[in-house]
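User: Here's a chain of 398 residues. Predict its fold as tokens.
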Amino acid sequence: MSAYQVANRSIHTDDPGLSEALAGIYGTKVRPLCLCRTPGIEMYIARFEGRHLVKRMPNSGVDHAPACDSYEPPSELSGLGQVIGSAIQPGPEEGITLLKFDFSLSKGASRSAPAPSAKDGESAKTAGSRLSLRGTLHYLWEEAGFNRWAPAMAGKRSWYVIRKYLLQAAEDKMAKGVSLARMLYIPESFSAEQKAEIAQRRQGQLMQITAAEKGARKLMLVIGEVKELAPSRYGHKIVLKHLPDCHFMLNDDIYRRLIKRFEVELGLWDAMEGTHLLVIGTFGIGATGVASFEEAALMCVTENWIPFESAYDKQVLDAATQHGRRFLKGMRYNMPLTRPLACAVLSDTLPQPTALYVIPPGASHDFARTVDSLIQESTLAHWVWRAGEVPQPELPSR
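Assistant: Prediction complete.
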């Protein structure tokens, strides 16, 4: 559990007086200090809707102790380094982070529907200057802390928790001059007893894009857990868990491209019991009041909601979880799937964290050479599994 120095007071993150203490120095030149190391590491205060939160200073994650909630692996072990400062522009003084998207949140009458998600590396605008849909989901997932795991988290993640912290992560983010939290819809946990109230709240939120606008139609973002992709009368639809009375339609063209682009994610979800499939997408509301996707991206997560990209990836994450290890999952953001990325970083090894790499069967020589280069350039310890050649080695000891 993190502790901060606020003015001359040491206070833990779960202390109910933390927000009030932060409010006392908000707007001054006094910064809170994270006490994970000595001397403390400067943080900044974000204020949103009357609440004050402690945030990590940009590019300071690697300075924190590995066990600290603010620790972040070196930039070469995550796709964040590629987009921070360009697609993601933190503003410590204002407490607001500005985001630049490579997808549209409006649709003109003459525009054709875009692909579900641009194939990695096909477009120059996905190289780092703007966030892709997948990159946006990865950013919110990391900001909400769901790429982190510790034994104490077991059994404490549910859709209610996922939704709460994703919305909290969106609160101090702005895009196109609008609060990300305002343009983001995440279904509430379904309750038969509160079905009417939930539907009323949903309709109230979606009203902002149902009003007709001259020239362009507003779109929103949705994040939800996929229950099924199913045929509809005139196309297809994505049915979300916790949303039995409101489906998101897909025309045949978008459906075909979605199936082709995310063949791996759909295959993993289909084959592995207990996993979850997340969708992020832009959608609009037609004149009939029906929601339809304009663009979409998919992400697989484990039973504990930790993202994974392959069966080998998941095998390593499951082993780390079963052995009670602390680790972080590096998020890819806009990086192409062809570029190697650490499967995870064990934060409980001494004297330094350990990057875990998997070289899948059939990987090219270039792939293996890139892994070797990442290892040589990194200051972390490393562990490598050449899947298909040898059984998974034991994880490094604490």
